[in-house]
Amino acid sequence: EAAGQYLPKSMVIIPNDIRKLALSITRRCVSGLGGVGGFATLGFRGLVAYTMNPLSDLIGPYPTSAAFVTIAITHRGTELLSPGQYDPSIPLALANSAQIQSQLLAGGRAKEFCRNNMRIWKAQAELMKRSTGTTPWWPNINPPMDEMTYECDVNLGSPIDAECSRIEMDGSGSLSRTLETGPEEIRFLYSNTCFVAISAAIPVTISWVQIQAALETLRNFCLTRPFQPAQGGRAYHIPQGLMNKRVGKRQSQVTGLNALPPHVNLTLFQQIEAWIDQAAEIDSCTWKEVTSRRTVKVCV
Q: At what angle are helices 208-222 and 109-126 packed, to 10 degrees?
């Protein structure tokens, strides 16, 4: 079966390759594990090569050159839920490739790119379910409205990543630390010229773990992209419906995909002028309305 976000009109497959992979699955899974089904991939290197290219957009769309083939042995027959599309082992394999490449690099932006790659694919795997899942391996181009949104904005300056990372480090080890904010109050965190503004459309309490997850993802997304200038950015969560599936999630499960609770937004920006006081910063802030079923204010 062909797998990938966009598939070519045709794919050439050598029959002997199918036989070899089917025999390998039979030996390892059916015979070796006492009747367990399994699948193998053919042409997976093309997808790995695409995701490891710093010029590729991991959010998609993925080209047909990144498509591959899966050979599966299962008792489900035609009811098989395409493992090449919906099995979490696909993003985990991409995460493993990124981790290996990261270990081979001494440092710099290329190494950070691989680490960010690894985090993206592990987070995607967390969203998927084996055998019964309907979430594909590629990150959603248009995520549901009850997911986090990250966006970069050149108007927010060029924060220095080393300074912004100190904000995260200041809270490391303080897992029980919380921060309260609401529609009438903006909370600021800063290190030299790197500032983080946190606000919410309703009164809410945020844990330090949630702040770290959102800030780390925003840094990776806007500050450390290879061959791209650093920019400030925003992370916000516009909920859909009255109930949200992320409420009550344990701190150990917090990732960049579900970092902030509904109605909360975090803005990362560079403060070039000397810091005066919080009230002056609030008064000089221009607000952009982000609207769906509810409204969240974002400082720009």
A: 130
Cα–Cα dist 47/29, whole Å = 25
pLDDT digits (tens, 9 = 90+) for 47-66: 998 888 877 777 667 888 88
Q: What are phi and psi of 290, to 5 degrees?
A: -115, 115
Distance of CA 142 to the CA centre of its chain: 13
Q: List beta partners, residue 287.
A: 299
Whole-angstrom CA distances from 54 to 10, 48, 49, 119 are 28, 12, 10, 15
DSSP character at residue 31 = I
Distances (CA, A) of 238 to 189, 265, 298: 22, 9, 11
Strand segments (E) across the chain: 2-3, 38-42, 68-73, 148-153, 178-181, 187-191, 194-200, 204-207, 232-237, 264-270, 287-291, 295-299
What is residue 196's three-state secondary structure? Answer: strand
Q: How many residues does the chain have?
A: 300
What distances in angstroms separate CA 65 from CA 29, 47, 163, 226, 291, one per listed residue?
Answer: 29, 8, 39, 22, 37
Helix pair angle (161-171, 208-222), 10° resolution = 160
Q: What is the mean pLDDT of each run of 10 residues along the chain (300 residues)?
A: 85 88 89 82 90 76 86 69 87 91 80 83 82 75 56 88 84 62 84 89 83 86 79 76 32 58 86 52 45 41
The answer to whether 132 touches 81, Cβ cutoff 8 Å, is yes
- The answer to whether 264 touches 299, Cβ cutoff 8 Å, is no
Q: Within 13 Å, how many C-alpha atoms sit on residue 252's CB side?
A: 0
Burial class for 179, CB neighbours closer than 10 Å (0-12, 13-18, 19+): middle
